[in-house]
């Protein structure tokens, strides 16, 4: 048996945390030289959420700084995550990859009319030694309603992948999936679909030290923030062109080996972002105080702004979305971004009084007020107290709440239209919100855009 070995390197969910990026570039360059000396095939892929608008460099460059970093790292191809797909406007996403020197693989994303954008490929074929070929397919998480409102069409990967895999299997010997779907869905894909050899995964930030095998598929994921780079070693029989073995492992990037050119380029990007950060927004005559655990002027100001922006009579948001108070004096875009970095959009929910009461009671629990949320777009420390506009809560001696909405006691079967944050419509923070009668996302503006808009009007 004559064998040949190839290597796949992968990262996921950097979220614009560039702490270890110079280490990653140094490690990849070291491996690139190593494989070139040994005449071995090697490829590097990123599996999405590389760009996160919580970082000033990403915000100032609208993601193009991230693309430049990926270019310089020699990435072969990427797929996108939700942070690229739904936190940028359609026009912004169309423009982000204009200077990309790599392929963008998203098999399940289209224009609203069903035509594939020019900058996207569903897959690419890479050629290994001895005429062996591999198809690399990309898919991203189908946040259907949000993509539709942004002007995109996104397909369910479970419906479109199997025919695509059958198609590419006629051309190649190996199928690799770049999947920004999360571990649970990756496991389901491996169980339900035939023909996927390797899934390089993302989205759920799992650290899979040696991957996870489900049926005939090896699933890999490297956590988040670039703390690890993943490697998959493929051994193929040259004569039969069949995979003989696959092995996965992770390499920590917590080391002192950094790429000096990358460090210098990051410093250059940071300096360039200062021009954007220093752009003036307003001048405050009084401090806008923020308190995560009590009512405060700053959060109430944002609650009123959210209500006005969404054209509702009621709003609610958690105090933890504002990280700091705003001081007296000039306020810049950088100040607004610093205190409200989250890629969170306004939305309007229509909900019955019964569910609204459940949300209010749950929001007042010590568990929720002190909950250290990770994900769902939240980039703060704790959820904090829920702040309302148009809703008043009073308690009797037994701590039993009385809820008044627009001056009238809450009615359990009444329908209420409330301005709030899109993160409450995801996950299980407030299960009652998942039963909302209607959810309307106001895109592409973010919560900080609402804050900036209101500050400019005072």
CATH superfamily of the largest domain: Metallo-dependent phosphatases
The fraction of residues in strands falls at: 25-35%
Major β-sheet strand ordering: 4-3-2-1-13-14
Mean pLDDT: 96
CATH architecture of the largest domain: 4-Layer Sandwich
Number of domains: 2
Helix content: 25-40%
Structural Rg:
24 Å
CATH topology of the largest domain: Purple Acid Phosphatase, chain A, domain 2
Largest sheet, in brief, is: 6 strands, mixed
How many angstroms separate the termini?
76 Å
Name the overall outline: globular
Sequence-ordered SSE layout with sheet pairings:
Blueprint: E1 3-11, H1 21-38, E2 41-46, H2 56-61, H3 64-73, E3 77-78, H4 82-85, H5 90-96, E4 103-104, E5 109-111, E6 123-127, E7 133-140, H6 144-150, E8 152-154, H7 157-169, E9 174-180, H8 183-192, E10 198-201, E11 212-214, E12 217-220, E13 228-237, E14 243-252, H9 260-277, E15 280-284, H10 297-310, E16 315-318, E17 329-332, H11 333-339, E18 346-352, H12 353-363, H13 366-369, E19 386-389, E20 391-395, E21 401-405, E22 408-409, E23 415-421, E24 438-441, H14 447-455
Parallel strand pairs: 1-2, 2-3, 3-4, 7-9, 9-10, 10-12
Antiparallel strand pairs: 1-13, 5-8, 6-7, 11-12, 13-14, 15-17, 16-19, 18-23, 18-24, 20-21, 21-22
Helix pairs in contact: 10-14
């Amino acid at each position: 048996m004559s064998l040949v070995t190839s290597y796949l390197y992968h990262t996921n969910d950097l979220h614009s945390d560039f702490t270890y990026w110079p280490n990653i570039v140094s490690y990849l360059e070291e491996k690139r030289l190593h494989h070139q000396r040994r005449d071995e095939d090697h490829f590097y892929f990123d599996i999405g959420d590389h760009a996160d608008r919580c970082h000033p460099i990403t915000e100032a460059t609208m993601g193009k700084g991230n693309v430049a970093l990926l270019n310089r790292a020699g990435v072969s191809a990427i797929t996108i995550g939700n942070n690229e797909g739904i936190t940028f406007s359609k026009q912004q996403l169309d423009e982000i990859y204009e200077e990309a020197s790599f392929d963008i693989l998203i098999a399940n994303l289209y224009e609203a009319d069903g035509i594939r954008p020019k900058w996207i490929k569903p897959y690419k074929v890479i050629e290994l030694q001895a005429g062996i070929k591999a198809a690399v397919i990309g898919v991203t998480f189908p946040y259907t309603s949000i993509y539709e409102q942004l002007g995109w069409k996104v397909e369910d990967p479970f419906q479109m992948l199997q025919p695509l895999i059958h198609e590419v299997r006629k051309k190649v010997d190996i199928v690799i999936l770049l999947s920004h779907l999360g571990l649970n869905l990756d496991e389901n894909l491996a169980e339900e679909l035939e023909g996927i050899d390797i899934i390089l995964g993302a989205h759920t930030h799992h650290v899979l030290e040696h991957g996870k095998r489900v049926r005939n598929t090896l699933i890999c994921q490297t956590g988040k923030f670039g703390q690890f780079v993943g490697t998959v070693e493929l051994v193929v029989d040259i004569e039969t062109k069949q995979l003989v073995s696959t092995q996965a492992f992770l390499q920590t990037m917590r080391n002192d080996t950094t790429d000096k050119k990358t460090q210098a380029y990051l410093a250059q990007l940071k300096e360039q972002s200062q021009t954007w950060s220093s752009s003036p927004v307003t001048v405050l005559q009084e401090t806008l105080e923020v308190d995560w655990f009590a009512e405060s002027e700053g959060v109430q100001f944002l609650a009123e702004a959210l209500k006005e922006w969404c054209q509702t009579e009621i709003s609610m948001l958690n105090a933890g979305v504002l990280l700091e108070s705003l001081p007296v004096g000039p306020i810049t875009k950088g100040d607004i971004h610093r205190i409200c970095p989250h890629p969170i959009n306004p939305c309007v929910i229509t909900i019955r009084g019964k569910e609204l009461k459940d949300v209010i009671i749950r929001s007042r629990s010590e568990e929720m007020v002190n909950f250290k949320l990770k994900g769902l777009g939240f980039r703060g420390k704790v959820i904090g107290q829920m702040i309302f506009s148009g809703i008043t809560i009073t308690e009797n001696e037994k701590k039993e709440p009385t809820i008044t909405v627009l001056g009238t006691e809450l009615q359990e079967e009444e329908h209420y239209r409330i301005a709030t944050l899109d993160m409450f419509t995801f996950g299980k923070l407030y299960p009652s919100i998942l039963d909302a009668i209607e959810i309307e996302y106001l895109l592409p503006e973010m919560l900080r855009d609402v804050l900036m808009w209101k500050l400019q009007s005072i």
